[in-house]
Amino acid sequence: MADEDVAPHALGSPAGETHTFPAAAAAIAPTPAHPAAAVIAGPRAGGEQEARLVWTGSYAKGKREIVKLVQRSRRHLREDLVPPTEAELDARRNRVRAYLWHLEFATEATPRLKKDPNNVDRALALLFKDEQSLGFVPDDIATQAAAISAKFQQANWGANAPPRPPSTLPPLPPLTNSTGNVRLPPANHPIWGRAGIMHGLMLVHGPTRAIYQFDPRYLAQKRDAKVFGHNGLTPGDWWPLQHVALYHGAHGHSMRGICGSPARGTYSVVVSGRGAHGYGGLDQDGGDAVSYSADSSFLNRCATAIPHVSDDTRSLQRSLATGRPVRVLRSAGSNRPHGPSVGIRYDGLYRVVAEVQARNALGGLYYKFDLVRAPAPLNPRPLADICARVPTAAQRNDESLFRQGY
């Protein structure tokens, strides 16, 4: 990742964690724009403006913010150096808090986080392991840094995760606000408000583009996706983006198609509506029966072996062994007659009933899993009825408008 790139806002916060926005960051008053942090303004009761700092920079910039905070804080130890003002340190601490919030709630573990120039592991260690820094790092920052480091270590820094596919999301409107100040979605907005299809998300204008992030006001409502069963959802529930499905606990990732644990099994899968390229050329969707390919299936060129079996694939193998049902979602696309016309839809619980090896267009082996939709009462609504009625005309209309923002 180039040093100046905007950090990809994966929105893949670990399911099961719901937190309120850090109070220290929420109290920040609007300040001159910083290249890696945007002040998010929203209405308060009485017409006042509430400001929140949201990270929009790269991981490399986040590392530099941490290093600079530690370096500037240590100047108090040197009599020959002019110490920083408390106002400067407060501003730096708040930018670090915004970066840590981004790591905790909007970042999936990937191996490149540890590589140059990002070095997230070493930057976090400066905040809670470095004895020379502990006296200068506020307790809330040190505690959060330690928790994030433990979370990424538990995920082995994404070493067993499949590579992320290229984004197929439509582009957002270009950045038009040079200061970085944007409003939080109004609560009564028909699309982005509390009753709208984009509830739980907001638009943040970064240095070069607009991005989706979770709305910090509603993080406590974010549902844990790492749960078996319907998870409080109803077959036929629909969302405009996979990001929104993630917020509602339907699926645990913003882009990956499999959410699961190799020890427990698969919680959910997304049947892609993309065309003949990639997984779209391997998956077979018969509605009540689905043949679902494992991750990276279309990339293997080896005709005699499958060189890498990811944790996602192992989770499907575990579901085959346990018989636990898996949530199946379908995304829009011309290649899927059972998929929604737009957005992404929850189609009910399926069971993994078989695993076979097949060959892709390159002649390489890959794993394919057969899933069968569970009958009533586990799925009270027939799939044919869902396909015929969801999304509704109103949902399709709102989907055509949400990119306009608020």
From TrEMBL:
Keyword annotations from UniProtKB, A to Z: Nucleus
Gene Ontology cellular component annotations, sorted alphabetically: nucleus
Comp. bias (Pro residues): 162-174
Signal sequence annotation: none
Compartments, as annotated in UniProt: Nucleus
Protein name per the record: YDG domain-containing protein
Organism: Trichocladium antarcticum
SMART domains according to UniProt: SRA
Region listing for Disordered, in residue ranges: 157-180
Pfam family, one: SAD_SRA
Keyword Nucleus: yes
YDG domain sequence ranges: 228-373
Gene3D superfamilies found in the cross-reference section: SRA-YDG
KW Kinase (keyword) present: no
GO BP: negative regulation of gene expression via chromosomal CpG island methylation; protein ubiquitination
